[in-house]
Predict the structure.
Amino acid sequence: MQQQSDLIYGLNDHPPLRGTLFAALQHLLAIFVAIITPPLIISSALKFDFQTTGFLVSMSLFVSGLATFIQCHRIGPLGAGLLCIQGTSFSFITPIIGAGMLGMVNGRIDAPTALSYIFGATMVASVVEMVVSRLLPYARKIITPLVSGIVVTLIGLCLIKAGINSCGGGQAAIDNGTFGSLRYLGLAVLVLVTIIFFNRSQNQYLRMGSIVIGLIVGSILAWVMGMIDFTQLHGAGAVNIPIPFKYGLHFDMGSIIALGIIYLVTAVEAFGDITANSLISGQPVEGPVFLKRAQGGILADGFNSMLAAVFNSFPNSIFAQNNGMIQLTGVASRYVGYFIAGALFLLGLFPVVGQFFSLIPDCVLGGATLLMFGTVAASGIRIIAATNINRKAVLVMAISFAMGMSVELVPGILDKMPRLIHSIFSSGISTGGITAIIANALIKVKE
């Protein structure tokens, strides 16, 4: 257990307003880009228009505010009661894009139909994580650190494909034949180098804001080059009215199963994040109090993803990077979370915020996400490295990576398969994840 004396403000302390706002701002800097990036990537891949993209970004901020409040405050059995920040998860991007492809009508993707399939799968599959929260001790025997590490690594590796596509200019550049041009790749490299430069700084605030700084530098240069047109913001409305089920719901079993696999692994990741948060916050990391806190946090993780589907957003998960912010600031007070939640909630209500970030060119976003996705893969490798890698573990890793990457590298291999099989295994993450779970159980790494 982390000693309470290591903290300036403990879990239930009320820091003064100035200190609370400063700590909240630091957390926002650490998570803001991560919240808005998934809807931007998904929208680019599925060719959604500017208005739809802006709305999805706004709803991601709005739902992250609701989800963060539930985690920090704890409502009944829902929530960890810690300074836990939730936001849109990168882990689901690949299967979500796959679900969105079901909205293809006459050779073009119809945005409302695509989103109805995405939100239908998001809502139903979220039940998996809520069930896991009640069966936590058993779930951890199935999703071992080895399985979790394999899936997290696959998530990063599969997302790198989306990142490099953005660096080349995105789907629009592919369509008009300019993909991979010097100005796109040059901007992406500039953003990447800027982020690395500031991330190596000795100043903690420059390190925290390195991704934001990189995006700002890239966006300014893109504007100078005529790649950003701010006149598109003139039509932005005054306030976003969150409309439940705005796009309706459609259900596809393959997409539901594919997302369900990710929810299963996300539940175990959430357990690890809550454990680390409890330790840093000076709270117990074992016993009935901790188990209740962990189960409530994972239950809220799934419930908040269901809530996200209701309000037209994508699956949410607990952000691990905020544990580092607690250590950095010495402020573990969950009341800081209320201010973070309020800020995210309000930002989501103003259309101009979502539309402003929708103007960021794909190549600028790609320069940032390429590094972020590489970091996800590296995190998975760290999880694997912390396990006992014996001969059987190597065998599980080999078959899981082989199966997962095969459908990513050669997606046409499933074209002759039934639709259900194609939907489930079209994502390298779900294919590798299912393989890892089955292989780990049959090969019995722990025996």
